[in-house]
Structure formats: C-alpha cells, structure tokens
Write a structure and sequence with these properties.
Blueprint lengths: L2 E9 L4 E9 L5 E4 L8 E9 L1 E6 L1 E2 L2 E2 L6 H12 L3 E9 L3 H17 L6 E5 L21 H7 L6 E6 L6 H9 L2 E5 L6 H9 L4 E2 L15 H8 L4 E5 L7 H10 L5 E4 L12 E4 L2 E6 L2 E4 L11 H12 L3 H8 L1 H7 L14 E4 L5 E6 L2 E5 L1
Parallel strand pairs: 1-4, 5-8, 8-9, 9-10, 10-11, 11-12, 12-13, 13-14
Antiparallel strand pairs: 1-2, 2-3, 4-18, 6-7, 15-16, 16-17, 18-19, 19-20
Length: about 375
Amino acid sequence: MGFALVAERLFDGEEILEDVALVVGDDGRIVSLGGVAPAHAQYVHGLIAPGLVDIQVNGGGGVLFNQEPSVEALRTIGKAHAQFGTSAFLPTLITDRLDVMQLAASAVSEALRQEIPGVIGIHFEGPHLSVPKKGTHEQSFIRPLSDAEWALYARDDLGIKVVTLAPETVPVEDIHRLVSMGVCVCLGHSNSDGKTALAALEAGATGFTHLYNAMSPLHSREPGMVGTALIRDEAWCGLIADGHHVCVEAMKLALKAKPRGKLILVTDAMPLVGSDALSFPLFDRVVTRERDKLTSSTGELAGSHLDMIGAVRNICRWCHLKIEEGLRMASLYPAQFLGLHMGRISLGSRADMILLDKDIQVQKTWIGGYQVFTR
C-alpha cells in the first residue's frame, strides 16, 4: 500500500516547503520526509497539506445521522466530506430521543471497530440544552441528564466523546463528572450569564459550540456566553465561516480576541453537502437550501451547507489570513482541541493528507495512507 511522491509544495502544519520527498509505509504512516526522493516517486503538482478535522458533522451525501444512525450512514457521510478534504470527523447527533442516541453510539462503536475512514468518535449536541436558545433543535426532546444518558456517556468504545450542553441546565458537579469520564464538554445552545459559563469552564468544560450562534450575547454589563468565550484565553471556540451564521466583522473580532490556536473552523454540515438535493426533512419540518444557505420551514438557520475546505477559503479571503493559518484552523487546532496527534505532516505521523490546487480546491484526499478521493 505504501507510496512515494515529491510534492511541488508541502505544508507540514507550520510552514510551506518546496519540492519535498515523502514516503508512506505500508502501515499508512510517513516513514521518510525530505531528503533524496526514491526513484519511483511521483511528482505531484499543487500543495500537499494535512487532512482537515471537523468536530461537528450532522450529515452529508444525502444522509442525516439522526435519521440514519448506522455504520453505512457513517460511511456515506465520510465519503461525502472526504471530497472536501475532511480526513477525520465527529459524527454529530443533535437533540433526539434516547433510543436514537443509543443507536448512534453503537453505530460509531462499530464504525471504529471496522475502521470506517474518517470516523474518530461522536459529538452529542444536546439534549441538555436551553429552550430559549434551542435553534432548530426539537424542543420536545430537550431534557436534563438521566441515568440512561450517564450510561451512554460512560461508554469506552466511542473514541473521542464530545457533549454540547447549556451550563444553566447541568450542575457544575455533573460537568466535572463528565470530564472525569473522558467527555470533552462544550458549552452551547445556552442563555447562560457569564458567571454560570465561567463556572462550567472551571469545572472542566473546554470549548464553545459555534461561537455567536444560539448563545447569550455580550452586553455592556453582562458578558453572557459570547463575552465569556471571547475573554477566556483557555477556551476553544468553533466558528461556522459560511457568511450566514456569522458576519465577517464578528469573525475578525473573534480572531483578534482569541489567542492563536483557539479558534476552530467547523461546518455544522447537513445532509445536502455532497448531494444534489435541495431539501430534506428534519423532525416535523422541512429544511430548504437556497444557494449555500439552509433554512427550516419554521424560519431558523438549520445547520449549514458548508464544507471544510470552503470554510478555509472563506476565512482566508474574508479575514485576510494566510493559507497556512486557515489550514491550521481546520486541521491542527481542532486536533489539539481533541487531544489528537493530527494536523501535521511529520515523520511517523499518520498519512492523513490532501492535495490542493491553486484555487484551494481539493484534488485528492488520503486517510491513513489510502487515497479515498480523487477529483
């Protein structure tokens, strides 16, 4: 399975190098980087970069994970996003019934066992949310933590576990308990004041789900969720850079406020990514796509039609970032948030890589040394 190439340009996670030889071994890891290229190495035009890591993927390829919590669905979603550079992702289940959560967890467990390309764990976005900030989540499924959810979050066969919750609905001792069980706790869909959000961070929460969206705003005498997210240097913040969820000025503010490495690009992608369909059902509603905007029949934004490399292009163009930083926001920084050794091309690292052309369009994607997409 191993292969060798010479990259016209290669971004290793820190800097862009030119005419770099790279050899991938049969185990899917990089065994040689730089130096003299093997005689059989293929010269590759374009930019080789680390594969992209998306921590919030609701669906793709015509499949919504909530509606099809199965291994085959995860395979389809992974293939859909691989064509846009995603080499690792967290299938995300929005607020739903307990039995759907259990099916989703079992699907992820089996996908990890089968090594379905791209799947690294699961993100439960809800159901412990704030009704006033529910967004498009189904209100009838929002509920407090119960023994059944505790049992689910305690599973040790789910890979990376992320739970998004509203801190005003979950006591700090429960947040601390979740963290002690290996759950990465994010704050979101919350109408909390700054004091409550800060207490959740001190209890072990580490991130904010889709900064600005579905959270209490910054006011002059109350920081709210947004102010707390921006002022706390240690907290990571996801950002949906599609031009609909967050305006360019708010993106620039977040880039100024947060330390380098703490702002993460996410898609919050819905099933229409990688699909030609223009609508899909969501519980008792219909979500319709108009260009790249998704709107529920009840009026709210309903996830996005964004892909990861599109998010990189957007943030670089709108906020005048270098391509290196845009790629780090989509690879290295989310990997660091999850505690994973991804987002770099280095000796011994897994060969999760993408090939980009001059327009920052994905031409090839490799996951663990396997070429899973070619344009």
